[in-house]
Amino acid sequence: MVLTIVIAVTAGFATYFLSKLRYFNALRASSLLSLIAYALFLLMSTHAELYSVVFFGGTFVGMSTPARFGYYTLTSAAVLFALLFHYLVPHLHGYGGALGVSAFLSVCLCQLAIVLGGPRSRKSG
To answer: How far apart are the first and last CA of the chain?
Structure first.
């Protein structure tokens, strides 16, 4: 569980920062980082499929946030994604459904919390 959270937060922040570079956008950042992460997980781990799917889902969170969220909210959304994904995988068939639903719900819940007056971090430049 802790490793899932660390992977999701790392993926979210990596996508968040890479998408701000001149020749990158959110889609290119997510694609490149996911390919690199899959290669690294394949070399380092026996659970490469699971970890790469978690990383890819974390990039969804990072893709959704550069215009709306700051660091605190990005971290909250990534942690929430990891928790939802961990819970939903056994209940949905395959990783795809759990991946999309978890990413969508985590970003929506954080945005809803902001709209309802929850804590909000400053948007980073």
So the answer is: 32
> Taking the domains of the chain in order of start, what are their residue ranges?
2-115
CA distance 98 to 100: 6
10 Å Cβ neighbour count for 97? 13
Nearest to 52 by CA among 102, 8, 111: 8
- Token look-up 């990158």 returns 24
Alpha helices in 1-125 (DSSP H): 2-18, 26-44, 48-64, 71-88, 94-115
81 HSE (CA, 13 A, CB side): 34
Which two three-digit tokens encode residue 68? 């709306």
Single-letter amino acid code for the residue at 37: A
Residue-wise pLDDT tens digits, 40-91: 999 987 788 889 999 999 999 988 766 678 888 899 999 999 999 888 887 7
pTM here is: 0.84
